[in-house]
Design a protein that fits this description.
This protein is mostly beta strands. It is 10% helix and 38% strand. The protein contains two helices and five strands. It has a five-stranded antiparallel β-sheet, with no helix packed on it.
Length: 78
């Protein structure tokens, strides 16, 4: 069974971080370094979490497959 745990928001900074709209009760269990996330649509994933951090109440994720802001623009609403 697959669960929706987040929706990718806008880019943050120039190094490929994105804001994430969390849709799970346990984000610490879902978004940790090395976690592999399936995507919808599938053509964008899977994505591997490189880092996760809280920035003023907003979760920011960096994915191993994404290296800059230009690449992350395509993930919005995934």
């Amino acid at each position: 069974m697959l669960l929706v745990v987040a929706r990718v928001g806008r880019p943050h900074g120039v190094q490929g971080e994105v804001t994430v709209e969390v849709r799970t009760d346990s984000p610490d269990e879902r978004f940790f370094s090395g976690a592999i996330l399936q995507t919808d649509p599938e053509k964008f994933g899977p994505l591997t979490v490189e880092s996760a951090r809280n920035h003023n109440g907003t979760l920011l994720l960096k994915f191993k497959e994404i290296s800059d802001r230009n690449q992350v623009e395509h993930l919005k609403n995934v």
